[in-house]
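About this split. The held-out portion is used to measure sequence recovery: a designer receives only the structure tokens and must propose an amino acid at every position. Recovery is the fraction of positions where the proposal matches the reference. Here is one held-out target exactly as it appears in the evaluation file.
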């Protein structure tokens, strides 16, 4: 039986699937990732991208932070849309097969595709708030603002995104752990599994249907029950 056929059988037979995804899920929608050849880490900036999306950079180089954030993280999301992988996951959830999507992505595409139970480990560009009064703003509000976006109260508007040096939301992490511990099938897709603590979630899975779908090898391939080195959208379109 081919890998795709095995995966199809596991999905057909399960009503307790959990999906854990990274940047590779959205690259097929045209959203740049960080680590691949065309990723943000390999483009030339005055500072490394991981520095430019850090808490320190937001505080010390506020205008440059927003220039980079608007152009490279927020604007691409408005010019793209969910792909076959996002829609397939939403379809499985509707059928009662998929219990949750756990994502490292900040683009909000899983919700746009119709998924309801989405745990965003790193927050989302779709939500923005005033640091002073808490008023909520859309991603469009942030992009159209001239320079540093300001609230009507005068406070600074910041994205509801977990920057480097900031801690993850522990409630979301605990919910993710619970879903993974109970999962029958755990599908991990489009992630190189190098960003911790998110990558450490895989350790909580105790089942025997761990599926890794990623274009390149990961350090966890040897622990998986099924490994498919293809684009996730291409794999999901065959299911």
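Reference sequence for scoring:
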């Amino acid at each position: 039986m081919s890998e795709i056929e095995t995966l199809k059988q596991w999905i057909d037979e399960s009503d307790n699937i959990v999906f854990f995804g990274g940047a590779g899920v959205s690259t097929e929608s045209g959203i740049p990732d960080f680590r691949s050849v065309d990723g943000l880490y390999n483009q030339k900036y005055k500072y490394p991208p991981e520095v430019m999306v850090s808490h320190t950079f937001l505080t010390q180089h506020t205008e440059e932070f927003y220039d980079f954030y608007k152009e490279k993280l927020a604007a691409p999301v408005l010019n793209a849309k969910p792909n076959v992988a996002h829609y397939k996951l939403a379809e499985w959830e509707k059928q009662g097969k998929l219990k949750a999507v756990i994502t490292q992505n900040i683009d909000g595409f899983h919700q746009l595709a119709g998924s309801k139970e989405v745990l965003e480990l790193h927050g989302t560009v779709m939500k923005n708030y005033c640091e002073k009064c808490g008023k909520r703003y859309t991603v469009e509000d942030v992009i159209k603002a001239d320079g540093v976006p300001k609230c009507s109260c005068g406070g600074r508007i910041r994205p509801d995104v977990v920057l480097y040096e900031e801690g993850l939301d522990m409630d979301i992490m605990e919910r993710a752990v619970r879903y993974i511990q109970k999962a029958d099938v755990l599908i991990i897709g489009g992630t190189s599994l190098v960003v911790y603590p998110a990558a450490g979630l895989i350790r909580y899975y105790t089942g025997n249907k761990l599926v890794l779908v990623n274009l390149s090898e990961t350090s966890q391939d040897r622990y998986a029950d099924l490994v498919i080195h293809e684009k996730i959208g291409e794999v999901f379109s065959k299911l």
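Annotator remark: The chain has ten helices and nine strands.
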